[in-house]
Amino acid sequence: MTQYTREQMRLNRLIYILLTLEKEKKVTAKRLASELEISVRTVYRDIDTLCSAGIPICAESGQGGGISLMEGYQTQIKHFDKDDIIYLFLNGIGVKAEKSSILDKHTDMSLKKIVKTLPKTQTDEIQEIVGRFVVDSSPWWGEEETMPQIDVILQAVFQLHKVNMTYKKINQDASNRIIRPYGVVIKENIWYMVGYCEYSFEIRMFRCNRITSCILLDETFLYPKNFTLRSYFNDTLQEFKGKCALEEQYLVTMTVSAKAFRYLKGMEYSVIWHEEDQWRICVNLYTYENAQCDYWNILMNAHSIEPAELSEAIRRKLTACLDRI
């Protein structure tokens, strides 16, 4: 995979603009700026660059105007390269990149190349079918987890470069490590980087959204011949679950009645004591944030909740709700 320098990113933008113009005939600078996450001014600079390269692009101002290729002009950007195939294969096995990441943009560009080779009747049918599906990966409550370092992580995996990263555990303890990234595991839409840690001298799993900084180093490494990510994951699945449980453990003690147990199905909990219709239990709600956002059915059927920080957070949320009513 090529290194994502500033010039490479600019080249990717130029290709994206050309593919969009050839497919849709006319598009506004504002829309291109939104899709590429750049300014309208930068869009026009890119258009000037394309025009200087001899590509006939027209710009019409006013209502109904926009940017378009001269009628009959073909860009001939239909060929696939190695990167296109890799991105499409990753997409096919379920690697859905974070929106606006380099992987997401390249996958979209590769799909545009495929669509461009099809007759208009088929592209219209594809758009109609795609329009029947809506995918929203954001949670019902709380903030969506982000992975600001994912582009560097993927670049390191593709190119076998070491990274210098800062990792923050669930207890907020942060440590700096040199990692040789071997690959990425995605479990229930949570991304983990697997790599050899030169700090602990062992292969470790790191949750990607807890990597707060990640610098690509010039130093490369050899991928171990006796290691495959699939075998590692299959052979150590139970150990992996155990490590995740340790890293993602937020134990909450509460008193509940029998009806609360229907909400505990599939969860990790233990009974401390039981008297008539009252159970004192300890349940793992994984994180302080998750406890506030995803487990209201349990918490609303409980009392004497500990730790105190969670009780106070629930009181604040309920008070705020009552104030809004």
Question: Would you write up a description of this structure?
Answer:
It contains twelve helices and twelve strands. The chain has helices spanning 6-24, 29-36, 40-52, 82-92, 102-116, 120-130, 150-159, 229-235, 237-247, 288-293, 296-299, 308-324; strands at 26-27, 57-60, 66-69, 161-168, 174-187, 190-197, 202-207, 211-220, 251-256, 269-275, 278-284, 302-306. It has a five-stranded antiparallel sheet, covered by helices on one side. A hairpin with a 2-residue loop joins strand 10 (269-275) and strand 11. Helix 1 runs parallel beside helix 5 (102-116) and helix 4 (82-92) packs across helix 5. The radius of gyration is 25 Å and the shape is globular.
Secondary-structure map with pairings?
Layout: H1 6-24, E1 26-27, H2 29-36, H3 40-52, E2 57-60, E3 66-69, H4 82-92, H5 102-116, H6 120-130, H7 150-159, E4 161-168, E5 174-187, E6 190-197, E7 202-207, E8 211-220, H8 229-235, H9 237-247, E9 251-256, E10 269-275, E11 278-284, H10 288-293, H11 296-299, E12 302-306, H12 308-324
Antiparallel strand pairs: 1-3, 2-3, 4-5, 4-8, 5-6, 6-7, 9-11, 9-12, 10-11
Helix pairs in contact: 1-5, 2-3, 4-5
